[in-house]
Structure formats: C-alpha cells, structure tokens
Fold this sequence. Notes:
Diaminopimelate Epimerase, Chain A, domain 1, alpha/beta, globular, six-stranded parallel beta sheet, 2 domains, six-stranded mixed beta sheet, inorganic pyrophosphatase (n-terminal core), 12 strands, single chain, 12 helices
Amino acid sequence: MATYNKIIDLIEKSKDIAVFMHANPDGDCLGSAIALTRFLNKKGKRVFCFAPDLNKAALPVKVSFFGYEVITDSYNGERFDLSIGVDLGSANLMGDACFRIFLKGKKSIVIDHHSEHTDFADVTVREKSAASTTQILYKILAEYDKSAIDEKIAECLYTGLVTDSGGFSFSCTTSETHFVAGELLKYNIDCAEINRIVMKDIPLNVFHLKNRVLSGMKLYEEGHIAVICFTKEDFEATGTNEKNTEGIINSVLNVIGVELAVSISETSDKCYKVSFRSKHNVDASACAKCFGGGGHFHASGCRVYGYFEDVYDKIISSCKEIYHYA
C-alpha cells in the first residue's frame, strides 16, 4: 500500500521518534504503542514512548506484561524528527500535555481504525474495517521488516487484536483479523494465557463491584435497553475506581434481548463517564455523539456533566430515540 510506504520512508529518514497514545489506554492502544516502540528500537531509532499525561504510574496493571520500562513519563524539551500517534481518532484524545509534545515532531503520522475521526497528522493510515490498530500496525511492520518482529512485539500486537475484537467475537472481526492473528501465533506467543489475562482474570474487589452494580441493572423498552450505574459509594464500598469498570458492560449486553447497553460511571462531582455497547443495527456511536463523544458503531463513549438525575434522564431519552430509529 502506498501509504504504508510513506510511513516506512518517514521512519527510515528519522533518527529521533516520539510515540503517543490516547488517555486511559486500552490493550489495543498500549499494545500498538509498545510494539511500535520495541520495533523502532530494533531498527536503531532513538524512541520516546509517552504515557498519557506523562503519568506512567496510571497505566493499567492488566497488560503490564507488555513491559512498561520502554515508556517514559517525563519530557525534557526534546524535539523529534517524527511524531507517531496510535489508536487516535482525534488530537484531543491525546491530552493537552502530550499533544503539545506531539507538535514538536518535524513530521507526524497517525495509525488508527476509528470511524469517528478528525485527521491532524501529515500522514494518516485509518482503516475503519480493521478490528484493532494492532491489526494495521502488524501489516506496516511486516512490510517494513518482518524479521524485526519478535515474540514480545507479537505478544503486544496479538493482545490488541484480542481486546478490541472482544476475543474475536465482535462484528469487527474479519478474515484479515484471523489471518493477522495466525501470523502472530507463529512467534510462539502463549495465546491462551493472553486471552485469560485480558478477557477473564478479575481481582476480587472488582468481582464484588461487578456483582453489586449488575444487581441494580435497569431495563427499558421491553428489555431491549439495559443500564447500569457506578456511583462513588460503589467504588468506596469495594475499594475500586472508574478504571475497574472496563468490560463489565459486556455482561449486560450478553443478556438475551438486550440490544443497547449503557454504563454510567461517576468519576467526580457532576461528571460521568458513559459507555455504550450495542448489537445488530443499533448505533452506539450515535448515542455518544448526542453528548459530544464518539467511537465505533457498536462501542462508543462520552463524558456528561450535570446532576445525576438530569444526566440519567437525558441519556435514557437519547437511547430510546436512537433504538427506535434503528
């Protein structure tokens, strides 16, 4: 692909390269960033992989087996030949601090798979049909120098595939997704262990949070819309926080008859993180757009501000309208 060659050419001409990810990075985002960093190091580049908000301590423990030692949480004013953003639909997802550093690159690249986007780099590879950014990244790295891909890089790339495809169960999973997964398995990675860690393992306190919240699930539109809420009290009672809510919404969507699942998490006073997951023809991204958010057709999110009762009513009203529109 011509765009792949542009990326490879820019990397070849660059010595100092900075890699960026979005805030609250998931397995695909971190897998992409760390795989790319390790690959570029093997190609003899000087690489800076920046943690969101320059805070490496806030990265999720679940995928720390990637090896966070390659990530930096500080910036000393360096300029770069090239800035590369991964899994980024828009610049604002990077956060102010990191975007200012991103602009220090003489040239810039973004590799992404989100349908909702605002392009901001010199060169962008955005494949909306890809299950994950790591699916795209594998093809670029294999085109560049397949021999430089090793077990650790393959492990990161495969994890991104697993997390963003829901263990290869989401509608974004294609024959290419399985092909890339098959290629990565050739590097002797432990796919069963990766799947267990990212899809099944759950700390006891998160298990208690999950049970507490799911027991309060509310149904609307004859059981086709389901809503769960995470309150400050829920987090305090279980010793958890908003980051521990990841994936719980999928248990709601798994209920037979539910077409649209909604998760509302209290993150601070009058601030709520809202996630939408859907099946079939229901557009989760349309729900998020109502509140300035976005994402994928079947998985999207946003932040909503206000008093809980008002926020809740607005979300339910919008969801009902979008559900019936589908």
